[in-house]
């Protein structure tokens, strides 16, 4: 990491998504030039490197054909024709021959060799005095980026390029990039894209990593500059003066003091002063999140996002591997339970081995239960693993993104088939396993009475429910102002879902990020929620909130909130209550603004 010409203190702001303060050197990952690894290989490795290359070329070809098809459908054949040029470059015999020759001569990894040859080729084209050919240089570079990204998606991660403690700055980080950040070296991160409920932000919180997203665009963030990352207020202060550092040190001490007070609640129940008990559990993505959940005093796991077991690998985890992971989670949280959510692939969780990266509108596409029902072999393997883990007696199963009653029935049919076959094999599966659904699509909320007849519980996924209700991408930082759990439309859907669940005699929880929003918690309580599942770091805060007001006060609050017309009015009422009852937690509320 090198130094830089900027020495004055300056501040860049963004959206705070994961609390905490860190001080260290910036490490800026340029989006334009993906870091291409460079290492030597042996002569024996040449054939396997070449095979990787051929696979990447055919994958790229498929992607280009997909895009071409899509464009032809959307805008007509003539514009789609530009991809002809890309395909020609991709399969250009001269380039391929040069790569093959250089691979054997240089004995370096294929991405490095390919990038070297392509950049020479593009330079040569750009220098020709012919505008048509000069334009082709851009095509060549574009194709190269695609091939390299297909090559390195399986082979390098940020782990390979981060070698010393730093604050990572990137245009964007995918959820799987984030899950792989080396926690011992990365002090925090900031990205230009992203929002509070993007999975990248959710993972940052579960890793306890200070994070800021939606950073204002600036060219002045450079690798090697010293900076403070303020995950409470969404700031990066570059070249901090000694007095700035001193101020942040005091801030940190104040937060540590609040944390210390909160840990005193560890063994207390999440119960209101008038005895309304709420199950307060935690959300996890990976087994490595388990110790934090236990330490935070969570009552089990209300959401295990199992799709992260499928990330960052070229193959699928088999039944045995999944079974062992689910069983470990179940054992770790006893006597409480674990809710295993079946695969929720798609949306911003596009893991390369299973999804084409070229689909349009991924959040409205073949995601979650839709993907599972379209790939019964993957779904049934997962159900078997979950059922085998249920011999621990504290496992519940949950389907994500349910939209219709038929989907639930179809999923349950597969579950029943696996159940029968395991019982036939004399695996001691418990008599009764609770099966629930996530209510995160408005159509599901509005048909909650019918869905409630099919399942044992509901868990409201506010992250998606808000995005689908407000017609705003949960990951788009420019729409953060619209993305609001306190919108009267969202509140009515939540209320309707809770009432339908209770009318059918089943319990209902919330496992979206709104469940950890300390301003919103009293409202959810008043609407009648039975369970809240939040990131481990939020557990003590939410417990503090629940213990600070009576259920009857919360009921009153919910009635009032439902009578308001705007988010502003609802938020003002919620904030006034928060200021009165748990003012020390309000700093974090900036996180939610
Ligand atoms: C949700 O949508 O609220 C939820 C908890 O699921 P995810 O964030 O994984 O989409
Ligand atoms: Mg969801």
Tertiary shape: globular
| Class of secondary structure makeup | alpha/beta
Count of the separate structural domains: 3
Q: Report the CATH C-level class of the largest domain.
A: Alpha Beta
Q: Secondary-structure blueprint of this entry?
A:
Elements lengths: L9 E4 L1 E4 L2 E9 L16 H30 L1 H4 L1 H9 L2 H14 L3 H18 L3 H22 L5 H4 L4 E5 L4 H5 L6 E6 L7 H8 L4 E3 L12 E5 L4 E4 L3 H22 L15 E6 L5 H7 L4 E5 L13 H15 L4 E4 L27 H6 L1 H14 L5 E5 L5 H20 L10 E5 L2 H5 L1 H5 L4 E4 L1 H9 L17 H16 L3 E4 L10 H7 L3 E4 L4 H8 L4 H13 L3 H15 L4 H4 L4
Parallel strand pairs: 3-4, 4-5, 5-6, 9-10, 9-16, 10-11, 11-12, 12-13, 13-14, 14-15, 15-16
Antiparallel strand pairs: 1-8, 2-6, 3-7, 7-8
Helix pairs in contact: 1-3, 1-6, 3-6, 4-5, 5-6, 12-14, 14-15, 20-22, 22-23
Kindly describe this structure.
This protein has 593 residues and is α/β, with parallel strands linked by helices. It folds into three domains: 10-33 and 157-243, Glucose Oxidase, domain 1 (3-Layer(bba) Sandwich); 43-151, PtsI, HPr-binding domain (Enzyme I, Chain A, domain 2, Orthogonal Bundle), CATH 1.10.274.10; 272-583, Phosphoenolpyruvate-binding domains (TIM Barrel, Alpha-Beta Barrel), CATH 3.20.20. The chain is 47% helix and 13% strand. The protein has helices at 46-75, 77-80, 82-90, 93-106, 110-127, 131-152, 158-161, 175-179, 199-206, 242-263, 290-296, 319-333, 369-374, 376-389, 405-424, 442-446, 448-452, 462-470, 488-503, 521-527, 539-546, 551-563, 567-581, 586-589, and strands spanning 10-13, 15-18, 21-29, 166-170, 186-191, 211-213, 226-230, 235-238, 279-284, 301-305, 338-341, 395-399, 435-439, 457-460, 507-510, 531-534. Strands 1-8-7-3-4-5-6-2 form an eight-stranded mixed β-sheet. Strands 9-10-11-12-13-14-15-16 form an eight-stranded parallel barrel, surrounded by four helices. The two termini are 35 Å apart. 45% of the residues are buried. The structure holds phosphoenolpyruvate and magnesium ion. Phosphoenolpyruvate binds next to strand 10 and helix 18.
């Amino acid at each position: 990491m090198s130094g830089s010409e900027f020495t004055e203190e300056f501040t860049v702001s963004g959206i705070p998504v994961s609390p905490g303060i860190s001080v260290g050197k910036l490490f800026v990952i340029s989006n334009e030039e993906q870091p291409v690894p460079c290492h030597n290989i042996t002569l024996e490795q040449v054939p396997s490197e070449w095979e990787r290359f051929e696979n990447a070329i055919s994958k790229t070809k498929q992607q280009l054909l997909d895009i071409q098809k899509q464009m032809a459908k959307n805008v007509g054949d003539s514009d789609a024709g530009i991809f002809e040029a890309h395909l020609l470059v991709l399969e250009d015999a001269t380039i391929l021959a040069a790569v093959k020759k250089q691979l054997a001569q240089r004995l370096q990894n294929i991405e490095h060799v390919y990038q070297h040859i392509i950049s020479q080729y593009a330079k040569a084209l750009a220098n020709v005095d012919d505008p048509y050919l000069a334009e082709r240089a851009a095509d060549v570079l574009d194709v190269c980026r695609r091939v390299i990204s297909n090559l390195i998606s399986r082979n390098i991660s940020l782990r390979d390029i981060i070698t010393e403690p730093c604050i990572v700055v990137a245009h964007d980080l995918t959820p799987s990039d984030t899950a792989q950040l080396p926690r011992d070296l990365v002090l925090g991160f900031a990205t230009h894209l992203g929002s509070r409920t993007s999975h990248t932000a959710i993972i940052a919180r579960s890793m306890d990593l200070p994070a800021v997203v939606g950073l204002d665009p600036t060219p002045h963030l450079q690798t090697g500059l010293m900076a403070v990352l303020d995950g409470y207020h969404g700031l990066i202060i570059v070249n901090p003066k000694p007095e700035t550092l001193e101020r942040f040190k005091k801030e940190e001490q104040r937060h540590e003091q609040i944390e210390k007070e909160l840990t005193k609640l560890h063994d207390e129940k999440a119960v209101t002063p008038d005895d309304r008990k709420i199950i307060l559990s935690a959300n996890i993505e990976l087994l490595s999140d388990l110790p934090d959940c236990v330490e935070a005093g969570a009552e089990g796991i209300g959401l295990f996002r199992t799709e992260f077991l499928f990330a960052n690998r070229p193959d699928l985890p088999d039944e045995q591997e999944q079974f062992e992971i689910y069983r470990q989670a179940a054992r770790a949280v006893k006597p409480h339970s674990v809710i295993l959510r079946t695969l929720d692939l798609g949306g911003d969780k596009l893991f390369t081995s299973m999804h084409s990266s070229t689909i349009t509108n991924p959040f409205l596409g073949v995601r979650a239960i839709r993907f599972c029902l379209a790939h019964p072999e993957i779904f049934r393997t997962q159900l078997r693993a979950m059922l085998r883990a249920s011999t621990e007696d504290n496992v519940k199963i949950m389907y994500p993104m349910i939209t219709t009653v038929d989907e639930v029935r179809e999923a349950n049919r597969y579950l029943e088939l696996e159940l029968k076959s395991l019982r036939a094999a004399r695996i001691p599966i418990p008599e009764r396993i609770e099966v629930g659904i996530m209510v995160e699509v408005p159509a599901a909320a509005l048909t909650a009475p019918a869905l409630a007849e099919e399942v044992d519980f509901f868990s409201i996924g506010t992250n998606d429910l808000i995005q689908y209700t407000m017609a705003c991408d949960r990951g788009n930082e420019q729409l953060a102002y619209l993305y609001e759990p306190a919108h009267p439309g969202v509140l009515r859907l939540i209320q309707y879902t809770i009432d339908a669940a209770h009318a059918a005699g089943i319990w209902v929880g919330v496992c979206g990020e709104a469940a950890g929003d300390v301003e919103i918690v009293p409202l959810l309580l008043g609407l009648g929620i039975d369970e809240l599942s939040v990131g481990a770091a939020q557990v003590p805060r939410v417990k503090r909130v629940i213990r600070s007001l009576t259920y009857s006060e919360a009921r009153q609050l919910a009635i009032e909130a439902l009578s308001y017309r705007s988010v502003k009015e609802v938020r003002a009422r919620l904030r006034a209550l928060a200021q009165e009852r748990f003012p020390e937690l309000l700093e974090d509320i900036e996180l939610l603004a």
